[in-house]
Amino acid sequence: MASEFITMASKLLEIKSRYLLYKQKDNNEVEDPRLELMEKLEEYKKFKLASQDLKDNITYVDDLYYRKKEEIVIDDNMDLDDISIDAIKNILPYILKVKSEENKPQKDEKLEKIVRGRIVPVEEKIAYIREIISRDNEVSFTKVIENVDKDEVIATFLSVLELIKSREIVVYQDLFFDDILIKKNLES
Length: 188
Prior knowledge:
- The protein is mainly alpha-helical.
- The protein has helices at residues 2-25, 34-57, 85-96, 109-114, 122-136, 141-144, 150-165; strands at 138-140, 169-172, 181-184.
- Strands 1-3-2 form a three-stranded antiparallel β-sheet.
- Strand 2 (169-172) and strand 3 (181-184) form a beta hairpin.
- The model is unreliable at 98-103 (pLDDT under 50).
């Protein structure tokens, strides 16, 4: 910054000294040294106006929308005394369908990074749950995720949440880690 300041100061001193010589000679053949400075100031003014126009015309900042804060209702009456580590251990295999490592074929890790598994769209699982609910009116979550892999369990769970949000289904659970019962919402 200091070098820029010194450069600008020396340029202004040069223009001023040339202007003083220009005034003394009173010669029309020599060009007025102030013209160069005036041209640069005019160019600077054009760029400043253009940047101001760009700043005024940027609307993408105004097009940002934020989700409203949702109120979280916590049920203080929930009794967690009956939950134990054993109950969590018993339900975990049903949710994640944990398979033993011996039954799994050995995979090449580099190949697995290159070739990924099938992407499970949530919309596909939503349609699947709608089909089951239209047929049976009620189904358990473990029945829905029967014989599927981990990615499909996650997609199915997300689809259940979406259907709850759109008020197409309601879910019930008797105990904290019990099976989730999915029912068609008859109020919608």
